[in-house]
């Protein structure tokens, strides 16, 4: 340990018989569908929720008292980094993720903030030289500071657009320097509060131009990672332009980016958009833009994004089923965009939350793999859509309205409804989860 914050907590091991702090399902070296479990799941710890968040909620302030609080000095930013890498070691986490604002305190000028950021990136680089943990992705926080209150790329002030460009360049350079496998853009303020003061067409065009600048810069510096956009419908903005997967894909198509940018899909954001997590993953896979996931859950009795650690095996299993069917992760992974509860004050709570989340994901992955190996869902789909593989089905697709109308009028085509067998298939899934 480089800091006493996690003193007394040993590295977590796989021990299915343990009654203590251990992995009971997550065995990094277990082979699942021909690949190590660690390489399937590609877990990442989120710097912002695990270390930058102070325990506040919409109705109350800080509850955590950490060695790096207050987060206003570079010395404490280094302490935060020490504790973060201690946690990565305890968990055996292969990856982590950050925003610029998570890892260094804001300064009075951009240049000073930039210099502070570079100092911490160099500190990360030193630590990563002797650790297994790598950078899954970096991103820029362009939603917390008051300058972003009307957006970043979509701000009505062109100087804010320019400031956002400088911020993203800084974060992309650092992600590239640290060997990050992706770069994420989450537009928390890229939307509007009211249409009374919003030129939606202009804002969308500006956001499209900004994302093209990002892609151009990626190629200029030789960054081989994936550019990811993260969908979310609202909160903090009343309406965000990256509402859901389908909306993001339409945006990417309009601005010629569908071959350059993929999506980072979050469970909690999917629910806020009125979808299931597996729906958003399956949609992205069908459109060819699936990239990575933020794993968490919402409290279904609350109306906001509560970012809790996952604990629902059936829900997680269906998510990984669609990920595996899409070919699994390439540069993406499972980032825990999740935070402990504001009453969970101890260092052990932070470790236990990740251990539980990793175990749930491992259980879900194994269930998904078992369903794929069994082949029951594939067989049901093949049977349901078999007509399209027949000569008649292929002929129908190749025909036109008039010809098809004539065939129906003649009585040659007279469809008879068939059961969708939903309850049977739900019972089938329950055998595995």
Automatic annotation (TrEMBL):
The active site is at 99, 102. GO terms for biological process: D-xylose metabolic process. It catalyses: alpha-D-xylose = alpha-D-xylulofuranose. Signal peptide: none annotated. It is an enzyme of class 5 (isomerase). Binds 2 magnesium ions per subunit. Mg(2+) 1 binds at residues 230, 266, 294, 337. InterPro entries: Xyl_isomerase-like_sf, Xylose_isom_bac, Xylose_isomerase. Its cofactor is Mg(2+). Its EC number is 5.3.1.5. One of its GO terms (cellular component) is cytoplasm. Keywords: Carbohydrate metabolism, Cytoplasm, Isomerase, Magnesium, Metal-binding, Xylose metabolism. Mg(2+) 2 binds at residues 266, 269, 305, 307. It is found in: Cytoplasm. One of its GO terms (molecular function) is xylose isomerase activity. The keyword Isomerase applies. The keyword Transferase does not apply. HAMAP family: Xylose_isom_A. Belongs to the xylose isomerase family. Homotetramer. PANTHER family: PTHR48408, XYLOSE ISOMERASE (PTHR48408:SF1). This is Xylose isomerase. It comes from Seohaeicola zhoushanensis. The lineage of its organism: Bacteria, Pseudomonadati, Pseudomonadota, Alphaproteobacteria, Rhodobacterales.
